[in-house]
Design goal:
six-stranded mixed β-sheet, 469 residues, alpha/beta, 16 helices, globular
């Protein structure tokens, strides 16, 4: 059903892993005109938004708010009143300590339509990725979710005992963790009750430490655990030794950047994420389509031979030909491709093309991205890739918050774009990290640009070629 103008979707972004967001949540992101997102919502999800969508960061840190709650409420009402399709993207589930009730109340008071799209809540997901089932027939038949801190306005809600449920999950509790542990002991929980702290649960940078109600504070200090983190209390924590799985992945804990020179999807980010790494593609690009004139389309249709450099150009040209009422049979008889993806894109349209041996063939017109065609004598550019400046703030935060170890260069253009953008964002330290590469010419070019240390473990994984599958 089509959403009315002036509509707000409260979307649960899940616990962090981008595979744990709902299909409906992704659809909301694709339709949004405005996205207001939190710090704990994985910013990779914003890549699903259309090019015209505006991003607004509403991140909150302990004792420091980028945007006050009152301002967020006001913006939701303002943009929806202007007829925008708004998404409020929240980490985990919007209804579990996500303040969706407060924000939805504000919309209801202003007669603005909204929906709530649930997400996987962080306590259950983080515990699962740590190898801890929050319930178990032998250890726990109940689960209590609690906020780790209170405020004066809701203190009365906490006059009852905290000791509720065999397993207790504390959200946002790092600052008052010691107080909560002491209170549980005071209320009868044994001091040797098992406790796990899970930082950045479900992501490649996940860290887990274990202790007891009595010892966990010292364990946290030794492990340098910080927010955001979940605290899981109960006997189920003891199952972690048997059920640990995520931490055993080949690249668990590694932080790997994937350099990009276009918006064409690479499998590398997903591949290394699935191997347990914290992987991030940088920079983010957007596509600007070039519209052909009638004369240009006529020249293409009357060419002796067409050579396509990439699959995206196939899609763009065919779409514009259709809009101009050209029949597929009007295309030249001789059609060539330069990449396997391009061959597949042509085959999907019933065209069995030949492999291009030499794109400089005088009898051929080259069809491709601007970066592919600028040096060709006779060529038509279907599109160009531009840096998506909406992600500048996100990129600075992502590149600053984590200690990135390695960058993967799939091609020479990626080396150039990576170096240029890290300089533009003032992230010069990233010019000194290790690198891995695809192809010897890329390795040589990267070294010419000042990258000197090769990450042998990542390089060895790339040579296995499994990422191509």
């Amino acid at each position: 059903m089509e959403k009315p103008k002036g509509f707000v979707s409260f979307v649960g972004a899940g616990p962090g892993d981008t595979g744990l967001v709902t299909k409906k949540g992704i659809q909301c992101l694709k339709e949004a005109d405005i996205i207001l997102y939190d710090r704990l919502a994985n910013p990779r999800l914003l890549r699903n938004a259309k090019d015209t969508c505006q991003f607004i960061y509403c991140g909150k840190l302990p004792e420091r708010h980028t945007m006050r709650q009152e301002k967020i409420n006001k913006l939701l009402v303002q943009y929806a009143s202007e007829g925008c399709c708004v998404v409020r993207l929240k980490g985990g589930d919007p209804s579990v300590f996500g303040r969706v009730g407060e924000e939805a109340e504000e919309l209801a008071a202003n007669d603005i339509a909204f929906e709530i799209v649930p997400g996987i809540t962080s306590s259950i997901a983080a515990a699962a990725y740590a190898g801890i089932p929050v319930t178990h027939r032998d250890y726990s038949t109940s689960l209590t979710l609690r906020t780790g801190h209170t405020c004066e306005s809701n203190a009365a809600l906490h006059s009852d005992r905290q000791l509720l449920g065999d397993t207790i999950a504390y959200y946002m509790g790092m600052r008052k963790m010691l107080i909560n542990c002491r209170e549980l002991i005071k209320q009868g929980k044994p001091a040797d009750t098992k406790v796990a702290i899970i930082q950045w649960g479900t992501l490649g940078k996940q860290k887990v430490v274990e202790g007891t109600l009595e010892t966990i504070q010292a364990v946290i200090e030794k492990g340098h655990i910080e927010s955001p983190a979940m605290m899981i209390v109960g006997d189920v924590v003891g199952l972690r030794k048997k059920l640990i799985w995520f931490d055993k992945k080949k690249f668990s804990g590694r932080r790997i950047l994937i350099a990009k020179a276009s918006g064409i999807p690479f499998a590398l980010e997903d591949y290394f994420t699935n191997l347990g790494a914290e992987a991030y593609s940088f920079p983010v690009w957007k596509q600007k389509v070039h519209l052909f004139t009638k004369e240009e389309l006529k020249a293409i249709m009357h060419a002796y031979r067409l050579t396509f450099t990439n699959a995206t150009s196939v899609d763009i040209l065919f779409q514009q030909c259709s809009q101009a009422h050209y029949d597929i049979r009007d295309l030249p008889r001789n059609i060539e491709y330069q990449t396997e993806q391009t061959r597949k894109a042509l085959a999907a349209r019933g065209i069995m093309a030949d492999k291009a041996e030499d794109s400089s063939n005088a009898s051929s017109i080259v069809i491709g991205a601007q970066s592919d065609t600028w040096h060709e004598k006779e060529a038509y550019s279907t599109h160009e890739w531009l840096i998506d400046e909406r992600f500048d703030e996100i990129n600075v935060r992502m590149l600053t918050e984590d200690d990135w170890e390695t960058v993967i260069f799939p091609n020479k253009a990626a080396v150039k774009s990576f170096a240029k953008e890290v300089k533009n964002l003032g992230m010069h330290h990233l010019l000194n990290i290790k690198f891995a590469y695809i192809g010897e010419s890329v390795k040589e070019y990267a070294m010419e640009q000042g990258f000197s240390m090769i990450d042998e473990a990542v390089q060895s994984e790339l040579k296995r070629m499994n990422w191509r599958n």
